[in-house]
Amino acid sequence: MHKSLDSIQLIDIPKISDPDGRGNLSVIEKKILPYEIKRVYYLYDVPSDSSRGGHAHIELQQFLIALSGSFDVVLDNGLERKVYTLNRPNKGLLIPNGIWRELDNFSAGAVCLSLVSDVYKESDYLRDYNDFKSYTKTTD
Questions:
Q1: Burial of 130 from C-beta contacts in 10 A (0-12 / 13-18 / 19+)
Q2: Which of 35, 40, 89, 140 could form a disulfide with 117 if both were Cys (CB 3.0 to 4.6 A apart)?
């Protein structure tokens, strides 16, 4: 099934600013994500000419946040591609299952936080783009 790229959401994370100028605090709780977080990991020290991701998930949903710096998220449903630049720690990108993702163009010091809906399961990954395209056609 070719999921619409319109199903991807850029979500504002509540930000609490300290009135004394001591910085900001952002909180992810309650109904911000449509799933219970079962795994948390982060990417850092990624060279600017490297990319991460390069896969899709059959079931898993993912929420990405640029805690520091910036990076691009290239999303693909098998028919079209869309690029999101993440560069604010109070905005996150909710990626549903069935969407191919690649992360690239990392700035120096970029940190990407990933909050996902399930524990690691290799069987949930589509790691070859041609396999992903075949999968999207068979589930239409």
A1: exposed
A2: 35
* Domain covering 5-138 assigned CATH 2.60.120.10 in the classification: yes
Q: What is the mean pLDDT of each run of 10 residues along the chain (140 residues)?
A: 86 94 93 95 94 96 98 96 97 97 97 98 97 83
- Confirm whether 55 is a catalytic residue: yes
Distance CA 42, CA 67 (A): 9
Q: Which residues have a Cβ under 8 Å from the Cβ of 20 and sit 6 or more positions away?
A: none
Q: Is the pTM for the entire model greater than 0.90?
A: yes
From the candidates 2, 52, 55, 91, give the one annotated as an active-site residue.
55
Report the alpha-carbon angle 124-67-50, nearest 5.
60
